[in-house]
Amino acid sequence: MMNDWLKIVATLKEKIQLKLNEPYLMQHIDSPMINEDRLLYLLLPFSKGQIQSPKVEMNVTTAMLIQVALDTHEKVINSNESTQKQQLTVLAGDYFSGLYYQLLANGKDIQLIRYLAKAIKEVNEHKIAVYQYESHSIEEIIESIRKVEASIIQKFYQYFHFETYSLLVTELLYLKRLFNERTLLLEKQPSQMFNAIHQQLFQSVQMDSGIPESNLPILMDYCNQQINNVKATISKLMKEDCPENELFIESVRELLKVE
């Protein structure tokens, strides 16, 4: 059973990768990442039989392409690369955006277009709130980060009337983001999330030099506390109601093992 889902995810990932493979761009920018966990989350509303449907495959592919396009644009915000590479990365994000618009137009699913357009708007609004320090509290920053990570899947679930696991998947995506942000802190790399949280904690405007090293332990403690809290929430949700998908269950178990 789990092997079947592994094959489904791997096959669809390969198909999406082929759509993203624009030869000139791939020579000059990093290859776009297709997150297998996100892909699995998008497949959860469907049975194995349904996934064989070209329309379902197209809808999942479209949502994944949107996420890749958003993630690609994100790289420019956090990049120290050359101007030329940044420009090409923006171009790649726009190219990937064109792919999902083309798929949606071909599918003529106007209602899904509306749902996903709302998700894109939501993601961009919350990114701006974090990056421009528009949030008025740490709670608002965290809520914005959660929206940035999960809005595409949340709206996708709403469209398919599959909201049952929306909170669980949101928590999983937030946990993965926390792990990434913690790595940035450990490596003393720029972290948009913790830049914003630092501004709230210390009521100070961020300097170009980044977060003072003396404040890093406080932010690290806060990050670890968030990780522990989210893990506890995920464990509780899994006990209450868990998707009957062995690959999903195993992926959650592995994620919860990360210290």
Automatic annotation (TrEMBL):
One of its GO terms (biological process) is menaquinone biosynthetic process. One of its GO terms (molecular function) is heptaprenyl diphosphate synthase activity. Keywords: Transferase. Its EC number is 2.5.1.30. It is an enzyme of class 2 (transferase). It holds the Pfam family HEPPP_synt_1. The keyword Ubl conjugation does not apply. It comes from the Bacteria. InterPro entries: HEPPP_synth_su1 (IPR009920). This is Heptaprenyl diphosphate synthase. It comes from Oikeobacillus pervagus.
